[in-house]
Structure formats: C-alpha cells, structure tokens
Amino acid sequence: MSYTALYRKFRPQDFEDVKGQEHIVTTLKNQIKADRIGHAYLFCGTRGTGKTTIAKILAKAVNCEHPVDGSPCNDCPTCRAINAGTSMNVIEIDAASNNGVDNIREIREEVAYRPTQGRYKVYIIDEVHMLSAGAFNALLKTLEEPPSYVIFILATTEAHKIPITILSRCQRYDFKRITVETIADRLMELMKKEGNDVEEKAIRYIAKAADGSMRDALSLLDQCIAFYLGEKLTYEKVLENLGAVDTEVFSSLLREILAQHTSQAIRILEDLIIRGRELGQFVTDFIWYLRNLLLISASDNPEEAVDVSRENLERMKEEAQMVDTETLMRYIRIFSQLSNEIRYSSQKRVLVEIALIKLCQPVMETNLDSLFDRVRVLEEKLSDPAFLAGIKASEKEKETAASGGIQGNGYPRISETERIPEPKPAKAAPEDLQYVKKNWNSIIRETKGLLQQMLLESTPKYDGNTGEPVLYVEFRNFLAQTCIDNPETVEILKQAIQKKIGKELEVKLVMKKNEPGSGGGNLAEISVDNLLQQNIHMDVTVENIEDDD
Asked: Pfam families annotated for this entry (predicted)?
C-alpha cells in the first residue's frame, strides 16, 4: 500500500479530535444536538487551521444515523460512504478551478433533487473567494433560500474578497491560528502512535515554524522524519533539514552588531551560507528573535512573554539590557523591509549583507530611530575609560604642538599678530544706489522664502532730504511687517547686496508711507542724475550699466 502523508493519515474524523478551534466545535455540536442547523456557513481563517476538516465532519454529523453528542459515529453506512468519498450527498467543489457562472448554474440545477441517502445534501465550496462576480451573483438566490435539505459550507482564506451580499446570508466562523503548545502536544501524541523517537525541543521548533497551521506542522514533521528515517529526530537535525539557524547564532550576531563589528557580523553570515542555511528563513527567524527581546525588555514577567528555554531566557535578558527599545525597533524595521525584498530577489546575500551593515553603522541612516542608535553608541564610547584617555592624549598633543610653534598639521604656527586680517568691504557711494536699482531682481534671487516674496512687491528708494547712500526698501504688503520686525532680515539683504556690488551698503526696511508708523520721511525713487547732482554739484553723464545676469 502506498504511503499516506501524516496530515491526511491523521485528519480528524469527529469533533473531539479537532484541536485549537473549540469555540467553533462547541457551537456546531450544540446546533446539531438542538436540531438548529443553518443553511449556509462561512469558514474563514488562515491555511491549515481545520476549515475543510470541520466542514467534512459537519457534513457527516448532519447525515449520521447514530450521532454521539453531536459528533458522527463513523460506523453507519452514511458516515463510511462520506469517509470513503463515495457519498452522493457531500459535494466538494474547488472554486479556484470551477469559478465560472456555468459551474454555479449546475449547482442550482442539482439542488432541485433530494438526497438519495441521509437527510441533507451538503455543498462544500473551498476557496470561495476565487469565484467570479457573475458566479457570486448566480449563487445569491440559491444561497438565500435553498431547499430545506441543502446546506452550503463556504471556506476561504481571504474573507475580505467575498461580496457583502454573500456574507450577510451566511453564519460566519473565524478560525484562529493554533497555538504552539496545542500543535506540539498534537505532534507528540501522533509520534507516539507512529512509534517514532523524537526530541521535544525539535517538536516545539516545528510547531513554532508552522506559524499556527496544523497541516504545515505535520508536513514539516513528515519531511524531517523522511530525511532521518530510522534515526532519532533531534533539534539539530530539524535545523539542518529546514535550513534554520540556532538561537545561539542569533545571540552572537546581535552582540557583534551592538559592538559595531561589521566584518565579524558578515563573517557569521558567510558561515551560515556555507553551511547551507536558507536566507529567507534566517531573516524571518532573526526578526522573531528581536521580537522576543523586545517583549522581554517591555514585560514585567519575561517568562510568560516568550516561549524559550531557561538557558536561552537568561541570555536574552542580558541582551535586552544591552540594547534600548528604539534600537530594537529599528533593527526589526530594517529586517522586516528586507523580508519583503528578499522574497523576489536573485541576490539575496547582497541584500542581507547591506541590512547587516545598516545595523552595524547607524550613521548610514538619517531617520529618528537610527539617531537613537547613534546616541547609544556615543554614550558607550564616552563611558569607556580607554576612549576618554585617547581623547585627552590627543588634546594634549595639540596643546604641546601649539606651544612649540607647530600646528596640528605639522606646519609652523602663525601667531595671531602675524595673521593678515581680511579686508573689509568698502562703503557704498551714492552712485552705487543706481546699480542696486538696476540689479534689484538679481539681488532678490539671492534671498528665500517669505522675504523673497515680499521683496518682489517692494520698491528700492532713498531719502531725498539727506541724499546719503542709504537704501530704503519700501514694502507695500502688510505681511512684510514680519520681515521688518526680524533683525536677521536686514543682514540677509545686506549680504545679498554686498555679493552683487562688492560694497557695504546700509539698508533700512519701511512700510509704505500711508501705513501707520511706516516712517521713511521724504522717500523718493532712485534717480541717478538728481542724486549725483545733489552730492557732487555738477552735471554728469551716466552710462547704462547692463545687468550682469
């Protein structure tokens, strides 16, 4: 006889064998005992949590000739026919491959005929979210008012894709992920029945790797047993077969990362690759390890927060004190992004190495959580006496070099009296106002923000009473009062003018004359001919100065 996979061989045949879904089992058993059976059920949940299994058990229970406490007896002809897959009363449909309108129309035609044996005709439609929009519409009326002898059981992993018109016609049952403890207990029970020698630690790792799916756990266990056929299944053998990594490796890797030893962290990764570890599984397990550290650091009872051995827990408590919460969250963020990218990448090793370098060198990032990590590294260095001693020695060398007339760069030291002061820019003359006037737009372009917007609506003027080389900037927009009140505004504008004309010009900011408190006296438009005549008392001819822009 051919071999039967564990998940098929040990598929539950009654409600008592179903593990981890007690809330659903109890409800269905009570409905059967009270004869309050619904006409349409919707089973939602992740893969391998028992949706199809419970659907088949329910189909047997409603047709069983001798039910026992709401469960099928599995002895009557009806139960045996359903178990063998020969019953005409239970019809299983895969909506992934039968998702058209014609397939649903066939169901509508078939429901007109009563069951040949038993009380109910049960339709189990798996992956019902794959039905087309037309197929859903064709199913609506039949689903709402089926004959009294018809029951629909819809199963799906993506309930959000099902139309609300279908959801409102069904009793919805949400299947939970099965806990690690429940899966581990079930696997140990089955291994005793099979007579296989397995290590409890190995079983617990398989249960955790199954991620809440009993079927996945049985498939992984089946794979490991086949690889080490006839041998005791140990924790190390499970890691070897699944391409996983031991937690001690994660501990060593994390300590190298915290110490910013990039080369050692890359060397650990290289060793894992040489040993044939799967990088996608490595990334997933390291995220889980960091998650456990985060729970330990944030929990008052770490023993209840994580499911690890006492030895690993003590080591993880020590590591949780070595790193702050913000840094752990940064590590998890980087590796979570990596988990999404590595799935479709052909250069997985390069992506993992880049992620490790980011973890070791927080200076490569500029976001807030990397800043926390950089502060942590700096605090650790400042608390190191050897590091502080090195800083003091460096400062002492500089002082010695300075006192001996030698600078830190090895060149002779120049005294402050020997330094040549930078020449100050010359004072602007009255005739420079014309150049400012002609190049006003290019000067404005040297400024930014609100000041630039206000200057675009301003007018450069001078005081006609004095004729002094003072530039008055007259604003017309009342919003410019903010710029006038800001003492930095004048300096910004003076620097822009100095950059343009190469001379220092006094600048005053005023509001238009008719504004209260504007000041400005007898301000006039800058006219070079009148201005020069007032100051030099002679007629001159001024050539047009082209804008250098």
From this structure: DNA_pol3_delta2, DNA_pol3_gamma3, DNAX_ATPase_lid
